[in-house]
């Protein structure tokens, strides 16, 4: 008798087969499915991270292309680049590298 009184207080559409089926389907899709909301969010975050990396690398490619064009245009610039970047030297030269001290 108490159960029927409680069921009478619940609206009729909440007791229908279609409501339970819809809730079950949504629960399955959002929680138990292999492509649930958490995985979708993780994939979206990874996609955003990869997009940022793509932008970074595209900018670096442009910088490297510009440096390459400058280096190939002049042997003096090529020598300067090799000496500064890769610490190369001519035969018979001594190279001294000055490293600034770190403040304690």
From TrEMBL:
Superkingdom: Bacteria
Transmembrane residue ranges: 17-38
InterPro entries membership: FtsL/DivIC (IPR007060)
UniProt keyword list: Membrane, Transmembrane, Transmembrane helix
The protein's name: Septum formation initiator family protein
Pfam family, one: DivIC
Naturally occurring in which organism (per UniProt): Hymenobacter persicinus
């Amino acid at each position: 008798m108490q159960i029927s009184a409680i069921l009478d207080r619940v609206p009729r559409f909440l007791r229908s087969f279609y409501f339970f089926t819809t809730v079950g389907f949504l629960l399955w899709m959002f929680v138990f499915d292999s492509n649930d909301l958490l995985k979708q969010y993780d994939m979206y975050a990874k996609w955003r991270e990869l997009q940022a990396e793509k932008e970074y690398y595209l900018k670096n490619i442009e910088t490297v292309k510009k440096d390459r064009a400058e280096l190939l245009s002049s042997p003096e610039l090529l020598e300067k680049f090799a000496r500064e970047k890769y610490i190369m030297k001519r035969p018979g030269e001594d190279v001294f590298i000055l490293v600034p001290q770190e403040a304690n």
